[in-house]
Specification:
Mean pLDDT: 90
Number of helices: 8
Low-confidence stretches: none
Strand order of the largest sheet: 6-5-7-8-9
Shape: elongated
Order of helices and strands: EEEEHHEEHEHEEHHHH
Helix content: 25-40%
Distance between the termini: 50 Å
Length: 182
């Protein structure tokens, strides 16, 4: 038998499927060398539902879910090994980065892929603290998410500590993710 290398995850093996991207495929920068797909990557690559939806994959089973469900999952991740992907518009193939990264083996620190933000390292304690703060800031700043993304205007600085912390956090991809998901 001829050994093949999966272009997505890099694993070597036999009986892989041929990698045949469409003419519209532009994510070559996410690929390893080779011309084949392992069984796992072939399923994810050929089923467009994986690109268009948020999902959790654990022990070979995939659960498609809403982005809102993902915050609960991030705060209490499944038992390893697992992968998490958060879609937004379903147009980008950012999930391919996750396949290349491989499964997570820890519930306390792990990687996810977000369609817009790319790979993000999640530390459960940190995301828990950011979620609590984001919900508090959202309430105190008039339930307007744009203030959490961009920083609050001067008239909101009566909540100075909150506004200063948002100013420090607003460019952090983890903060942007939490704000989107609350």
């Amino acid at each position: 038998m001829i050994q093949s290398r999966c272009v997505l995850c890099g694993v070597e093996g036999e009986n892989f499927s041929s990698f045949k991207p469409s003419g519209n495929f532009t994510s070559y920068n996410y690929l390893c060398s080779g011309n084949s797909l392992c069984q796992n990557c072939n399923e994810v690559f050929t089923d467009q539902h994986y690109r268009r939806s948020s999902w959790v994959r654990s022990t070979g089973e995939t659960v498609f879910c809403t982005a809102k469900d993902m915050l609960k999952i991030l705060l209490s991740p499944p038992d390893p090994p697992f992968m998490l992907y958060i879609a937004r518009s379903g147009k980008k193939q950012t999930y391919l980065q996750l396949l290349r990264k491989g499964s997570n083996l820890s519930k306390t620190a792990f990687w996810i892929a977000d369609e817009d933000l790319g790979l993000i390292r999640i530390v459960t304690q940190q995301i828990s603290e950011l979620t609590i703060f984001a919900r508090e800031a959202y309430e105190k700043l008039g339930q307007q998410k744009w203030k959490l993304y961009n920083g609050a205007p001067v008239h909101d600085w009566k909540n100075q500590e909150i506004c200063e912390r948002i100013e420090r956090l607003k460019h952090d991809p983890l903060w942007q993710l939490v704000v989107r998901l609350i």
